[in-house]
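Have a think about this chain, tokens included, and walk me through the fold.
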Amino acid sequence: MKKLVAVFLLAVMLFVCAACGAADTPDDAGTENGSAESGNVEDGSGEENGESGTEQVEDNAVAGGSGHAADAYVSLQKSGVYYMEYTAYAMGVKMDCQVAYRDGNSDSITEMSGFQTHSLYLDGAFYNIDDTNKTYSRIELAEDAADDVMDAAEYSDYVYVSSGKGSIPGLEAVDSAAYDYDEYNAVLEGGETLPMRYYMKNGQLYAIYSSVDDIEIVMLIEKLSADIPAGMLKIPAGYTEQAFTY
């Protein structure tokens, strides 16, 4: 979950920076001609099963929680190789998101207030990708700042805590119905735990809820799959690099 929170917060940062740049920077400012190089992370098959709702995943055991409804989804996230489509609600903001993870790298495409951001973390570097103009910019962050964003993604285990039924906190204005849920603690490196609730609807994962530093975040899940779409987790071919401006 902290992976998703880190990407969520990074996307908000990029949204603000990119919006300012679009308003204040001339179209040709800071542009460098040159071909983008493809990333060295292989793509998944990109195949979809064509079913509506959250894609089902193979059932795997989770520490302390074998046999619970959310185990398969938790196991997939724990593997660190997966693709998600979801609508996120946090801090009064709604975002439609596509996120892919593999080998510590992440690729996030978000739409918020009619504006799209595409952020890529690849081999220790952050990139802001402009899919409209087919450009990308490397974002230079202090080493400790980059660590703060992505080290939060490291966790050592998931531990089942309990099951119950109730409405989803923070989502009452959108959906006030009660749903069955399984709650887990994500055990982070260093021993800190992060409580996470997986809400089920019609036998499939419907929403993930957590609270991080008193910030509630809810994700309405549209897809959770081990298949990463072709083209994600790399700098798109044919894109040109330009300087990142705040």
Summary: The first strand starts at residue 82 and ends at 90. Residues 2-27+53-226 form a domain with the outer membrane lipoprotein receptor (LolB), chain A fold (CATH 2.50.20).
